[in-house]
Amino acid sequence: MSTLKRFFQDTIIYGFATVLPRLMNFILVPLHVTALSTVGYSVNTTFYVWAAFFNVILTYGMETAFFRYFSHSDRKKQVFSTAFISLTATTIVFFTLVFLFKDQLIELVDLNPKYFNMLLAILALDALVVVPFAYLRASNRPIKFAGIKIFNIAIVVLVNFFFLWLVPDHPSFVPDFILERYSSEDQVQYIFLANLLASGATFLILLPYFFRSKIEFKFGIFKQMWNYGWPIMIAGIAFVINEMLDKILLKEMISEDIMGAYAACYKLAIFMTIFVQAFRMGAEPFFFNHSKNENAKQTYANILNYFVIFGSLILLIMILFLDFFKMLIIPNPEYWVTISVVPIILLANLFLGIYHNLAIWYKLTDRTKAGMYISIIGALITIVMNILLIPVIGFMASAYTTLAAYGAMMLISFYFGRKYYPVPYNVKRIMLYLLLAVGLSAISFIYFRENYFIGTLFLGIFLTTVFLNERKDFKQILDQ
What we know:
The structure is a single chain. By secondary structure, the chain is mostly helical. It has one domain. The chain is 82% helix and 0% strand. It has 21 helices and no strands. Helix 4 packs antiparallel against helix 6 and helix 13 runs parallel beside helix 16. The protein is globular.
C-alpha cells in the first residue's frame, strides 16, 4: 500500500471517530436550540469554553509529546508509564488546588456551582484517558480507537434526546421517579449530565490500559516530554483564546442573547471543523512515523494540496447552500440574527487547517516554542481586535478577528517553515483553489443567495478545475 493511500485510510478511520462527535453537534444543535433560549445556549457555551481551557492546562502538551517520543523510542513501555503517571499526578494536584479555591473559581467562570462540579468531574475523567487514547493512535489501532469514541458519542446523544425530547414531549414513556425529579426550567443541566455519563463510561472501558505496563516513572523521559510539551500547552491556551474568547467578550460587551445566537451559528462551520479535526487525528502520528522516509517532504506537500482541495470544496458547498443548512441545523429563527458570520468563520477554519499542515516544520525539528509564539500572536490579535471592534461593528467583529488571527498564524508558519524545514508545496495550485473557492462563494452569498441553480453551476466550475489539474495524480494514487 502506498504511503499516501495509508495516510488517507488512517485519516478516514480516525476521521470517522472524530466526525461522529462533531456530527453529534449536527444532530444535537437543532435539539438544543429548540429546547433552550439564546440565554440558555449562552450558559451551555460558557461551560464548554472553560472545559476547553482547563483541558489544555490539564494535558499540558503531553499527548503530542507522547507521539514524539513513543514513535521513535525503544523504551515504549517506559514512555507510556511515565506519561500516564505524570498526567495522573498533575490531575490530582490540580483538583486539590481547585478544591482550595473553589469559591473564587466559580465566580471567575460564572457558572452555577452544580454545573461547575460537573465540569470538574468531566475534566478529571477526560484527562485520565488522554494517554490510553494516544497509545491507541500511536500504535496504529484506529478501529479500536474509533469504536470507543463511537460508544462515547452514543451515550451523549441518547441521554440528550432522553432528557430534552422524550421526557418533556412524551412523558408517558418515562418512569415516574424520573418525572418527579425532572426540571423543565433547568434543561441545560442534562446536556452536561450526558457528557459526564459518557466520560465515565469511556474511563471504565480504558481502565485496563492503565495496567498494561509496569508502573515506572523515568524522570529523564518526563523531562524530555515536558520540554517538548509545555510550549504546546501555551499554544493550546492561545488556541482556546482564539476559538473561545470572542464568545465570552460578546456576552460581556453586548448580551447573552447575541452570544448564544453567535455560538449557535458558529456551529454551522461544523463540517469544516470536522474535516480539520479528522485531518489532525490522522496526520499527527503519520507525520512523526514517516519523517525519516526519503520522500517525506514531497508526501507532506501532496497532503497539503489535497487538504486545500477538500477544504475549499467544503467551504464552497456550505456557503452555496447556507440557507438550506441553516434551516436544517438551526431551525429556531431566534438564532438567525448572526447568520452572516458563517462564511467568515468557514474560511477562518480552513486557514487554521492549513496552519496545522504547515506546523510540521516546528514539530519535526523540535522547535515547539515557535508554535507557541505563533499561537500567542494569534491570541493577541484575537484579544485586541475583539476589544477594539466589537463596540464598533458588533458581533461581526468576532468573525473578522477569527479570520485575521488564523490567517496571520498560517502566513507566519509558512514563512518560517520555508527557512527551517522547506517543503516543496505547490503554492500556485493551492492559491488557485483557495481564490476560486472564495471568489465563487462571495459572488453566490452576495448576489445569488438561495439561488441553488447558480450554486450548483459554481460547484461544477470548481470540481471541473480540480479534475483538470489533478486527474493524473488521482489516477496514480488509486492505481497504487
